[in-house]
Prior knowledge:
The structure holds 2 protein chains of 2 kinds.
Chain A: E1 3-5, E2 10-14, E3 19-21, E4 24-26, E5 32-39, E6 46-52, E7 59-61, E8 64-69, E9 74-79, E10 88-96, E11 104-105, E12 109-114
Chain B: E1 4-7, E2 10-13, E3 19-25, E4 30-38, E5 44-51, E6 57-58, E7 67-73, E8 76-81, E9 90-98, E10 106-108, E11 112-116
Parallel strand pairs in B: 2-11
Antiparallel strand pairs in B: 1-3, 3-8, 4-5, 4-9, 5-6, 7-8, 9-10, 9-11
Amino acid sequence: AQKVTQAQTEISVVEKEDVTLDCVYETRDTTYYLFWYKQPPSGELVFLIRRNSFDEQNEISGRYSWNFQKSTSSFNFTITASQVVDSAVYFCALSAIQGAQKLVFGQGTRLTINP
Amino acid sequence: GAVVSQHPSRVICKSGTSVKIECRSLDFQATTMFWYRQFPKQSLMLMATSNEGSKATYEQGVEKDKFLINHASLTLSTLTVTSAHPEDSSFYICSARDGGGKYNEQFFGPGTRLTVL
Lengths: 115, 117
């Protein structure tokens, strides 16, 4: 069975601080996808990244970076120099590469950036 | 990028009535669509997977007679909540998989907020 755990329910930081959101996953699949989504108050999910389990290289996109550690089954997300607009709920998710590719979501981390 | 729409965005209905929610892929063909439900301050839970032209596959614990899913074309899937009750009030989100796309990605709709009085 697949499972995603986001242990941090809520995080609150002051603007311009760096913040890391943790994600730990479980799967029996040898190949899989990992995702991060942002859900602002409007409710619409915003896709941030998809990572193939083949590729363990870390990725940086502007102020966002992701650290994929297959050895510890973690896929952590860091926001550098946080901004108020980063306030949202962030979800980590997992899917198989083959078959229906159903997404299994973590519980989400509510991030609040205070001015 | 690919766009998925949902209609309506919000709906309020009386207990016992049925509500239909539409999910459309606007610029690609979606052989597979997924329906999720999200209760306040909770995560998204997959309800069912629908494939065009065939019966939907429901997740454990989801009543298929209560949540009717029809995926009649490659661009439209509908979710009908039959005899809705207040406990069905939730945020319903669909996603569509672009099987013909380069990366076989899933794209999410904006969601439908259902309130049952």
